[in-house]
Write a structure and sequence with these properties.
Layout (H helix, E strand, L loop, with lengths): L4 H8 L9 H26 L7 H30 L4
Helix pairs in contact: 2-3
């Protein structure tokens, strides 16, 4: 039986143990409004899991959904502006 420990070290030292690059951190920063709006929507939905949603809960969920859609639209518009170079 041959020893494969040396081969495993090469296989397991893939790029997964590295820190995120500046470009990846910038992408996360650009998507942060969408992430935060999604968390707010999830929080509003979690509140209503174990009970019937009140009118206030329903309004909170609607507002959170609108914030998610707005954040996604703004991110998409920024990406489209970056692709076209801002010339409209």
């Amino acid at each position: 039986m041959s020893n494969i420990a040396a081969l495993q070290a090469v296989v397991t030292t893939d790029g997964f143990d590295r820190e995120p690059s500046a470009a990846e951190l910038d992408a996360i920063e650009a998507e942060m409004p969408v992430i935060l709006a999604g968390i707010e929507l999830l929080d509003a939905q979690i509140v209503t899991l174990d009970c019937t949603p009140s009118e206030l809960d329903q309004r909170r969920i609607r507002r959170a959904r609108r914030r998610v859609l707005t954040a996604r639209r703004e991110l998409a518009n920024q990406a489209a502006g970056a692709v076209t170079g801002g010339a409209a």
